[in-house]
Structures are given as structure tokens and as C-alpha cells.
Amino acid sequence: MASLSRPFEETPMHIKKIIPLDFESTKVVPESHVWQETDGFPSNCDILQFDEENSKSSIPVIDLMAPNVVELIGHACETWGTFHIINHGIPSSFVEDVESQARRLFALPIEQKLKALRTAGGSAGYGAPRMSKFFTQRLWHEGFTVVGSAVDHAKELWPHDHQAFCDVVENYQNKMKELAGQILLLILKSLDVSEEDLSWKLPMSEDILQLNSFPACPHPESTFGLAPHTDSMLLTILHQSDKGLQIFRDGFGWATVPPIPGAFVVNLGNIMDILSNGKFARVLHRVLVNQSKHRISVAYFYSPPIESQVAPLAKFKSPIYRSLTVKEFLQMRAKHLEDAISVIRI
Ligand SMILES: O=C(O)CCC(=O)C(=O)O
Ligand SMILES: [Fe+2]
What we know:
This protein has 346 residues and is of the alpha+beta class. Helices cover 28% and strands 20% of the residues.
């Protein structure tokens, strides 16, 4: 949906920061991509734990068919802000197809990928993540964001053969939208509220699909795939081809979220934090890279319609956040990133 690019018009990114490195021809990690501990980069101890897959945790795995699924989801949202889902009903072929189309895209020569480059104030297309705007150091990452339809950019990437990509992406988005709606209903039930308590209606959502590429890195100990951040929207449904994702939990520190075959990861975002009056808090997460694997992840961001008002649900008698539109909140995120939510605290 074109409307989603508007929040960023007033906060354009410098074109140099949108263009990712040509990872294919890079044999060392350039100075521009080396992060220090003073930039919040993981200490050696964190990296060691990641290598040993000592995740210190048992991030909940929730069976969507379990009789007590509402209780399980509520507990996972309150404690971790992240959980795996299994028995979700999405055939594995949808996931395999979207991952293989993502690999096909990122395998294109950089000159070709640049034909679909995101514009300075835009949100759709190929490029480095928007968070790069806030850091001096660059990330070991390239992405492709689909907002609504991918057709215009896909035609640039594959002038004679864009249909397969568009079909796969559209099918995947439709499945994700349905699944995200189901998960949101379960979350609302766990808060003891119904769909009617929302000012917007469930089937409506902005469709945002983010294809992420983290190429194998010659020196993974020195760089980030994605720096610590939270996601803006209600919830994110994530498929990851390999490990790399870590989440932060108070009192535990960083915990690896290992991929479980056939499962998706669900991460709570800022709008869920607002809706639940801070009870189901946004989860801080980051991505580390590795030396041998080209990791792909596919994130579906589920959001209320961009013009709709979001506020803590009416059941919360002492709201800690003020009401605003999704669009206004995204504009704040574009300016303040992680500080946006504290700006709207009452
Ligand atoms: O690659 C991952 O595991 C996480 C991706 C992510 O955090 C994002 O796209 O916002
Ligand atoms: Fe994220």
C-alpha cells in the first residue's frame, strides 16, 4: 500500500546508506562494517554462547491446536515477548517457495538489484535497513521490502520473468495475514477482550513482507546482521533459514532463538505494547551473522490499518500511553527509533 511510504517522507535516508555492500565481491569486513563494544556490539562472551548454542533459555513452543493455547500464548507474551508456533496449518511448500524466491533475488548481480532500490523517503524495494540511518557503522545485511504488491519492483528485477516471484510473495502474504489474525485473536482472548474492543477490524491490515539476506561473513565476530531493535507493528511472524536471531530478556540477557523446522517465530512489536498497556511488551532482538551460511529470513509485519487510531485497550483504566494513529507512530519511529514509545508515555 502506497500510504505506508508516507511516514518516511520527512525523514529521508541518505542514498549512500540505502545501498548495501556488494557482498559477493567482498573478501574482508571493511572498516565501515566493523562494530565495537562501545557501539553495543556483543562481547566475546555473548559470541561464544552463540557459537555453542547455549541459549540459556527455553523460548516457548506453542502448539496452536493445544486446548490451553490461550493461556500458553498469554504467558509467553507476558514473559518472553517471543515464541515459536507449531501446528499452524501453513504447508511447508509456502515457506520453501518464499525462501527460494528470496535466494533467487539476492543472488542477482548488485547492478540488477539496484534497479529496485528503495527511494530516500520510501519503504518498499531493495536496500539496507532503515535503522542504518541511526548508526555510523553499517550492517551485514541487505533486504527487500514488499508493501502491498511487489509487481513494480519485480518487473525491474526480472523484466521477462517476474510473475513467479509475485505469485509466491502474494500467496505467502495471504497465508501470513490469516495466521496473524488468528494469533492476534488468541492474544486478545488472553487479555480477556474481544475483537469488538478494537477500534479497527481484524481482516484489515497493511501487508508488509520483509525479505532479509545475511550473506556468509569472513569475520562474523566483528559485525552485526541487524543491530538490537524492536519491531514497530503489532506482531511479526518470522521464518529463519539458520540460527542468527537473538532476543533480550531482562534478567536472562541475550538468548538465541534457534530455528525449529516447520515452526515460525512470533515477536511482539511496539503497537502490541501500546494496545496491551505495556503488559505484552515489545521484544528487543538482534541478528548475528556466520562464516559459512547465507542466512535468509522472511518477516511478515502485521499492523492495523495505517490511518487507524491505536491506544491501550479500554479495559486498562490507567493507560500509560496516549492514543495516536499508526501513521503518527511510524513517523515517530522514523525520527526517534527505539525512543519513540517513551515519547508517547503519559
Ligand atoms: O532475521 C531475523 O531473524 C530477524 C529479522 C528482523 O528482526 C526484522 O526483519 O525486523
Ligand atoms: Fe526485527
